[in-house]
Batch of 2 targets.
Target 1
Amino acid sequence: MKIAIVCYPTFGGSGVVATELGLELAKKGHEIHFITYSQPVRLELLSNNVHFHEVHVPEYPLFHYQPYELALSSKLVDTIKMFDIELLHVHYAIPHAYAGYMAKKMLEDEGIKIPMVTTLHGTDITLVGKHPFYKPAVTFSINKSDYVTSVSKSLSDDTYSIFDIKKEIHVIPNFIDLNKADIAHENPCKRSLMANEGERILTHISNFRKVKRIDDVVKIFYEVQKHIPAKLMMVGEGPEKEMAENLCEELGIQKKVIFFGNSNEIDKILCFSDLFLLPSETESFGLAALEAMSCGVPVISSNSGGLSEVNFDGKTGYLSDVGNIMEMSQNALKILENDEILSEFKANAKESAKQFDIKKIVPLYEELYYTAIKNS
Ligand code: GMT
């Protein structure tokens, strides 16, 4: 198939899922065209069947806001025509589904029919999309998509309860390339660079937005390090980073916390991690938790959104109510204080991640694409 994928090119989970999906489809022989405003961060190699088309938005002083949707829909029309693309897959409803629908309509005017699949990722529904300023447009573009998928059952339920959706939402969970985690583990872990003998390593990876409750991450670690020697690895960039750095200083733990910034080598960091912290306010799936689990790292998370579909309480980690820092830190200690228990949780986490193997999940998208093309 010839497939156009629209996504955010940044470190956010939706862009990562879209990119990994495209690359896997390309490996299977499909021709993939990524269309976005810059090259997606995980898209390192372009090849015969992996193409990237940049959406340029010319600056014009009349516009207070430059019209990205307009530029994107025009780019979609041109690319779909030029490469005879058979299916459009947009990730994140805002504004991609909206721009995709406009492109579909423009193409229809020229006698070209192309099915559009929209994948809902989380904040496009639970945070941004439900804002009254966007809600009518998001409802419209979901209902006008030919097929809609969501990354968890919880997100699908939220979508039905927040919007007036008349379409079936197919749940296709996020996935992980288990080979990559294994390859990373074949290289020796650089644990000794980060921590002393006997210290436990806790890790958090995100885009440091409010929804991730970064202050809770720091406070959980603060409680843990009172009882056992430990270090905290903070990976990512975002608006809450400075607050987190200040909080570490206030609590006097700055020497025990390492801020990495954005990284393309999270497997190497997860390789020497003992525990992953994800106390988010809301999380439709928690791809970062799955990435940790695939590297054998148990997870202490909140029980919001779809996290309970990924992290299994008492098996791959523990789940607590949002903001229950004391319970989260006690659970962290339960896992970290005992070598045997830690090994058991690590093994469970790795085993459980296998149900989200890329090889099992990508065929679900392929099946949906074939149906969409057949019915268009
Ligand atoms: O978590 C973020 O802030 C990034 C966001 C995104 O769309 O890039 O992540 C969402 O999509 C991921 C991939 O499907 C999910 O794993 C995340 O749970 C989801 N984030 C939230 O729901 C907050």
Note: The two ends are 14 Å apart (CA to CA).
Target 2
Amino acid sequence: MSILTSENKRPTKRSAGRPLPELIFGDLWEFDPAPETADPKLKPRYDLFIGGRFVAPVSGKYFDSINPANETKLAEIAQANAADVDAAYAAAQKGFAVWSKLPGKERAKYIYRLARLLQDRAREFAVAETMDGGKPIKESRDFDVPMAAAHFFYHAGWADKLEYVAPGRKVAPLGVVGQVIPWNFPLLMMAWKLAPALAMGNTIVIKPAETTSVTALKFAEIVQDAGFPAGVVNIVTGFGDTGAAVLNHPAAVKVAFTGSTEVGKIIMRSLAGTDKKMTMELGGKAANIVFDDAPLDQAVEGIVNGIFFNQGHVCCAGSRLLVHEPVAAAVLAKLKTRIRTLRVGDPLDKNTDIGAINSREQLTRIEKLVASGVKEGADMFQPACKLPTKGYYFRPTVFSGVSMSHRIAREEIFGPVLSVLTFRTLDEAVEKANNTAYGLSAGVWTDKGSRILKMSTELKAGVVWANTYNKFDPTSPFGGYKESGFGREGGRQGLLDYCKLV
Ligand code: NAP
Ligand code: MG
């Protein structure tokens, strides 16, 4: 299909630094494959992890975890029922009696070991994460796994300094916490949940998402290798009903949920009136706002990272681009040129920018919302890249001419789809950015520090990035406003959600 000659097929030192004609960029490039080949060391079947051991489910049932890149079966995963969840809580209660009594500096050693052991097996975990969830290997290798380790390192550091979590007050662990996590950052979301809870002295029953349980169960091997007392970390796998059993269990003194706003609301309704503590990390529809004085090329990189990172399966994705009118045409043109260079395809290829959509279900949801954008009259742009014939893939998509009432401007698409809107004044930008049920994150691109400060005060979002996007650090609290949830993960604030003040 290539109309390129063998001479101009690959970038050479000669071409670096000078602009290339648009033809050479993107759509027509062909690259040799560069697959990551490390062995993910998967077992054919994973049981539940309860009381420090892998145990077959009482239910006797298993379901398949598949690789969304090629629709092949990766492993069988146990499907926990209510009796399995009961067993996990019984183990966690026993574990609490031991774990909560350990001095903080002893707990720190265990948590530190988790970080080190994860680092030792980083490559294997990155490959497993990519095969199970579809994200590009360069992201699981350079972001998910190192960030997960960083969360354990950071919280190991806190475990013997808990008197500084709430200065002037004493803190105590809560007991057994029930946690449920989504499929977009499976290992990392697990680290966000486990690390602060463990540092505080709580024990855990956690349920990963049904499409991405593999790295959680591989992590159970690390918990064993780190020599944790039995029952401190318990992992039960299954579908939504297993999640509901975990969060509604009478032995759970606190529940922490990351997932969709829709399911978050169901959980809040069912827990209303109980005395369980709750934190909710839910959906988002963030505004990424570019002013006319912004460094436009950097902004375009930030826009691309903001929406196409992890196929757009990111709760804080910059899915609404708000551009200042004077630069709107220029930004859109640069953006389209840049998008033509993105490589969509095999997630295990080290050069892939956009991997597979996590599941067929999610692909269908993205397709439906994109069709609604076309139907409602927005202008759609997609590069002409080839997609693999097997697996779940979606082209990076940009809608311009979007108005605030369009579904694609209001609903979380959770895919590689950007909606572009424009604004004339700062007040209009703030008004449009805040005109959403969500409030998880936002981005501001401008040369003026005063404008950054003004915007970050006005924007109703848990995180506001300035002249960057999607930057994370375990020291920095993350969480939402409005329907994006409540509670914080990371930093001192994240620890406060896992303790009681005595
Ligand atoms: P989801 O459908 O809400 O599922 C999240 C988790 O809840 C999964 O483990 C799911 O199990 C489980 N679940 C489903 N129904 C349940 C119920 N009735 N009771 C208890 N648990 C239940 O969300 P998702 O599609 O996996 O994840 C995408 C969503 O997560 C997006 O909206 C995204 O914005 C949000 N998210 C938010 C943050 C944040 O920090 N704010 C971070 C990441 C993702 P199954 O997998 O078996 O369905
Ligand atoms: Mg899978």
Note: The CA atoms of residues 92 and 231 lie 5 Å apart.
